[in-house]
Design a protein that fits this description.
Helix 1 crosses helix 11 and helix 5 packs parallel to helix 9. The chain has an eight-stranded mixed beta sheet with strand order 1-5-6-11-10-9-7-8. It is built from 14 helices and 15 strands. It is of the alpha/beta class.
C-alpha cells in the first residue's frame, strides 16, 4: 500500500494554538473592550474585494499593489484581491452601503489580511490586524480620539513601556503640493546618485524616497527639505490642535519630521507607535488622516482618519499570557453515572459557568487528572459506600463561584 504523504502547511502561514493562541486572544479581547469604551461600532468586511478598490486607494505604484497583493480572476472574469488591509474596504463599504447618512462614523474591525512578502519574525503572508477608523470628521479632535484610543490599548495590554508615539504633519493640499515641488527639485539635483527604485518614485511618488532603506539614498533623503518650511497657517493650526489635545490627554509623543505617507490623499496627521523590541521593523501600530480616500473611490469629499496594528506583533510584546482558568472541572468516576454528569454540565453552563468533563481513561485516575486542571472548583460524580450517586465538590478557597456552584450541584443531585 502506497504511503500517504502528510500535507505541509503553506509557507508564510501559521497555526495558532496554546500559548500563542492565548496571546492572540488577549490582544483581540482587549481591543474589543477598548473600542467599546470609545464607542466604535464593530464592522465586518469581505475577505476579498474587487482589485480596483485597492489599486485606486492604496495606489498602483506602491509595493503593496505592485508586488504584494494576492490577486486572481474569478470564474466570471472579474479581478479579485484578498484584502491586504482594511481601510480601503471600509471606504468602499461607506460608499456602497450608504453609510454617509451616519457620519461622523466610528468603526472598528479585525481579521486576516494577506500580503505576499518574505516571511520573517512576526510577519506572515496571512496575518491579522486590528483596525479603527473615523469617517466624516474633519476636525483634529478625531485624530486625538484615535491616538488616545491607541495609547490606551497599548497600556491596557501592558506593552506601552518602551513604545514611542512618533508624530508628523503632512499638511493640507496646498502644503503637500508645495513640499512635493521642493522635494522633486532636491532629488532631481541628485538624480545620478539615486537608486533605481527611487528614480521610479521620483517620477510617480517622490515622497516615498524619504522612506528608502537603500544606503545610496539615505544621505540625499536626509538632506531633503522638511515639510515645516511649506506649512500653511491652516495646516500648522491643525497640527497644533492635535498635539495640544494629546498633551491634555497625557499622551506622550515625539516629532518625526521624516514620517510620511506617500499617497496624494493623505493629509495632516501621520503617526507610528514604535518599539525597539521587535528588531529593525519596530512599528507596532500606525495610521494617519486620509481626507481624499473616499473621493478617490468615486465618492464625495469625505474626511477620514484611522490606524491599524498587527495582532501577531502586539502579541509578541505581551508578558506571560493569562492562563485559561475553568470555573468547574467535572470528573466522572463511574461510567454508569454519565447521565448525571451530563446534567451537571448542562446546569453549570446554563448558569454561565465554564465547565468541562473528564470521562476518558481509567475511572480510577480521572479524579487525579481533574486535580491537575486549572479550575476554581473540582466536582466528582461518583457513588458512596452504599452505591448511591453523589456529587462532591472541592475548591482551594471559598469564592462566590464555589458557593454558587455548590448550590447548583446540590440542586442537580436531589
Amino acid at each position: 500500500m502506497a504511503r500517504i504523504e502528510t500535507p505541509r502547511r503553506v509557507r508564510g502561514t501559521q497555526d495558532i494554538f496554546g500559548e500563542d493562541q492565548r496571546r492572540f486572544t488577549q490582544v483581540l479581547d482587549t481591543f474589543d473592550r477598548v473600542r467599546r469604551l470609545y464607542c466604535f461600532a464593530r464592522v465586518d468586511l469581505p475577505v476579498f474585494e474587487a482589485t480596483e478598490v485597492f489599486a485606486r486607494s492604496i495606489g498602483e505604484t506602491t509595493d503593496v499593489v505592485s508586488k504584494e497583493m494576492y490577486t486572481f480572476p474569478d470564474r466570471g472574469g472579474d479581478s479579485l484581491t484578498l484584502r491586504p488591509e482594511f481601510t480601503a474596504g471600509i471606504a468602499r463599504a461607506f460608499l456602497t452601503e450608504g453609510w454617509q447618512q451616519y457620519a461622523p462614523l466610528k468603526l472598528a474591525t479585525s481579521g486576516a489580511v494577506f500580503r505576499y512578502e518574505r516571511p520573517q519574525k512576526g510577519r506572515y503572508r496571512q496575518f491579522h490586524q486590528i483596525d479603527a477608523e473615523i469617517l466624516g470628521a474633519p476636525e483634529p479632535a478625531a485624530d486625538v480620539e484615535l491616538l488616545v484610543m491607541a495609547d490606551q490599548l497599548l497600556r491596557d495590554l501592558g506593552i506601552a513601556e518602551g513604545v514611542t508615539l512618533q508624530l508628523n504633519t503632512l499638511g493640507d493640499a496646498a502644503t503637500r503640493e508645495a513640499w512635493r515641488t521642493g522635494l522633486v527639485a532636491h532629488f532631481e539635483a541628485h538624480r545620478g546618485e539615486l537608486s533605481e527604485d527611487s528614480l521610479t518614485r521620483l517620477d510617480k511618488n517622490p515622497m516615498r524616497i524619504l522612506d528608502s532603506k537603500d544606503p545610496r539614498d539615505r544621505p540625499i533623503a536626509d538632506a531633503a527639505p522638511d515639510i515645516d518650511a511649506f506649512l500653511t497657517d491652516e495646516a500648522r493650526a491643525f497640527f497644533d490642535a492635535v498635539t495640544a489635545g494629546l498633551d491634555a490627554a497625557g499622551v506622550a509623543w515625539t516629532r518625526n519630521a521624516r514620517l510620511v505617507r506617500g499617497l496624494d490623499y493623505y493629509r495632516h496627521t501621520a503617526f507610528e507607535f514604535v518599539t525597539d523590541r521587535l528588531g529593525a521593523q519596530g512599528t507596532v501600530l500606525a495610521g494617519g488622516r486620509y481626507d481624499g480616500l473616499v473621493e478617490s473611490l468615486g465618492g464625495a469629499p469625505t474626511a477620514g482618519v484611522g490606524w491599524a496594528a498587527g495582532v501577531e506583533r502586539l502579541a509578541m510584546l505581551l508578558a506571560e499570557p493569562r492562563a485559561d482558568v475553568l470555573d468547574v472541572i467535572v470528573a466522572l468516576e463511574d461510567d454508569g453515572l454519565s447521565g448525571l454528569a451530563f446534567r451537571v454540565l448542562k446546569a453549570l453552563r446554563d448558569a454561565q459557568f465554564s465547565a468541562d468533563l473528564i470521562a476518558t481513561g481509567s475511572p480510577r485516575k480521572r479524579y487525579d487528572k481533574a486535580m491537575k486542571v486549572n479550575a476554581q472548583v473540582l466536582a466528582s460524580v461518583t457513588r458512596d459506600r452504599e452505591g448511591r450517586a453523589v456529587i462532591n465538590t472541592r475548591s482551594a478557597v471559598q469564592t462566590e463561584t464555589s458557593v454558587a456552584v455548590a448550590a447548583i450541584l446540590e440542586g442537580v443531585a436531589q
